[in-house]
Design a protein that fits this description.
homodimer; alpha+beta; 9 strands; 29% strand; DNA-binding
Chain lengths: 224, 224
DNA sequence: CCAAAAGTGTTTATAATACACCCATGC
DNA sequence: GCATGGGTGTATTATAAACACTTTTGG
């Protein structure tokens, strides 16, 4: 074939909304290079494994999440010469959107992982700052025209919870009343359940599940 | 490092609009595997080369195009086991949008290349049907919210030419009068030149150049 | 003059925004 | 009762869509 061979890794930008902030799961690396420094979870693709399968495997190893119902997509590949001191490594970045989860367990490689607000993250190993930035940008863009925001919510959720996702990801405030009408009038976005839930004060809110809709026309946010 | 190494290639979905049809540049492969069969232009990444540089190099080799002013972006990576009979090969698909060009020269590898309407393409080598499909899907999606349609046009073009790009890529008809107002009222989309050009019958049209705008809010096409 | 394409003005329908107001709960 | 968040109705404003109409060329 050719002599210029690459090791191929997958790295994961795993996003969630915690305490009103868009957050990502980072690991503290246990082995060189960059041992002890924070980075994205990831690892090498196995000999007979496809890329998405490798990403699913890493996601499970790092978070204990089975992928069912969660969103996982390929982001982009990064292969600049010198991005890994060990040699030629191509990394295929992936983007996962998950509901707010309990603080993760220590991974199988005994690496420590934890959630960090993306606004405060910098100085990651390799070119992971850039991969994270592309993941965040993609997530923001997709919220505008898709129903993906619901993947940040638990299986059953209220309109307010969904609104807080948009507000956290975009750093904006949305009118609760107009937001309500917008999402409930989008066909197949939200499936009402019979239950309601009372969260402290105020009228109890109706619970919804994700509908089958994937695209959102017209967009959730106009102009700039 | 690890024993599971990959060869890494770049493949190009090069799109243009010719005779009112969205078309792509295909090569007839000169060497095995799939010798004699059609496929996307592409080749292996060199030892000290980044992905985009490899894609630019292949674009020049296949079309003689220098990239200046043209659009080239990474699409996605494909690495399913068995996608290449020679062994483990990861291909990073790229998407290029170019103006209507003269029929390309024979490439340096003596491969024959030619434009084909995407609607009629199937049976490409490797998984290139799928890469092409993703490229076309991406191009269609991006036209909705960006000013990228202008990259299909020559340096100076009329509003009609631009409209025919949208009509070809989407297979729709657009009202010439509303389209005119839409694009001319989007700030920094079109820069008017002093010249006009008469194309056969009818009033001569004003010529424009691409402006600096990249995004288009609200979108060019609503609903479905 | 006529046909054809470029370009403008105006009307109508639809959707976003703003916000007044009612509902249902905890205290 | 009163505060709080859930949810509905309605007026205002902006935008898209439809289309009548004028402009400028070639024949």
């Amino acid at each position: 074939m050719r002599g210029n061979l690459f090791a191929v890794a997958v790295d994961l930008v795993i996003l969630t909304v915690r305490d009103g902030e868009l957050s990502t799961l980072l690991v503290r690396r246990g082995v060189p290079p960059f041992a002890g420094e924070p980075g994205l979870p990831g690892g090498f693709v196995l000999p007979h494994e496809d890329l998405l399968d490798a990403a699913v495997r890493e996601l499970v190893e790092e978070t204990g999440l089975t992928i069912t119902g969660h969103h996982l997509e390929q982001l982009a590949s990064f292969a600049a010469p010198g991005r890994d001191p060990r040699g030629r490594v191509l990394s295929v970045g992936h983007l996962a959107l998950v509901p707010d989860l309990p603080e993760p367990q220590a991974g199988s490689d005994a690496v420590v992982s934890a959630w960090h607000p993306v606004a405060a993250v910098e100085g990651l190993a390799f070119d992971h700052d850039r991969i994270l930035a592309e993941g965040v940008e993609r997530a923001r863009a997709k919220l505008e025209y898709t129903t993906l925001a619901a993947t940040f919510c638990p299986p059953a959720f209220t309109v307010s919870q969904l609104r807080r996702v948009y507000e956290a990801v975009w750093g904006t405030e949305l009118d609760p009343r107009n937001f309500q009408r917008k999402v409930t009038s989008t066909p197949d976005f939200l499936i009402p359940t019979a239950e309601t839930v009372g969260t402290g004060r105020g009228r109890p809110a109706q619970l919804f599940r994700r509908g089958a809709a994937t695209s959102l026309y017209p967009p959730m946010l106009r102009g700039d």
